[in-house]
Design brief:
mainly alpha
Length: 120
């Protein structure tokens, strides 16, 4: 039941931030980037604030969600870079994106560790 609450919280956050639309997920405006950065902040806080028994894999939608722009592009307010995601396999040079990727991988490692401890 707690896992459903966490999933529900993540869905609610996406909805409240207006990230359910393709416009903001793949948009190249500064407004879209700020919303995406908020999503990653909320997502990572949600993952790492969860109790040890609630670890779960990131959803397909999260794996395909754009990671933050490089800092230079954020300061300039526009980007020309190709969208980078958790599953894209390449870096756009953004420290925030790499932090998001690293903390998500660490969280997945905790999920695997927990699964083995529970005999799955």
């Amino acid at each position: 039941m707690l896992i459903n609450a966490i999933t529900g919280n993540a869905s609610l956050i996406v909805s409240l931030l207006g990230l359910g639309s393709e416009k903001h997920r793949s948009g190249t405006t500064l407004e879209s980037e700020i919303l995406r950065r908020r999503f990653w902040a909320y997502y990572l806080m949600n993952c790492h604030a969860a109790e040890a028994g609630t670890a779960d894999r990131p959803s397909e939608r999260t794996l395909k969600f754009p990671l933050p722009w490089p800092e230079e592009d954020f300061v300039a307010g526009i980007t020309n870079d190709t969208t980078t995601t958790l599953e894209s396999g390449f870096s756009n040079g953004s420290l925030y994106a790499e932090l998001s990727r690293s903390l998500t991988l660490w969280y997945i490692g905790q999920f695997i560790k927990q699964s083995h401890a529970n005999g799955y």
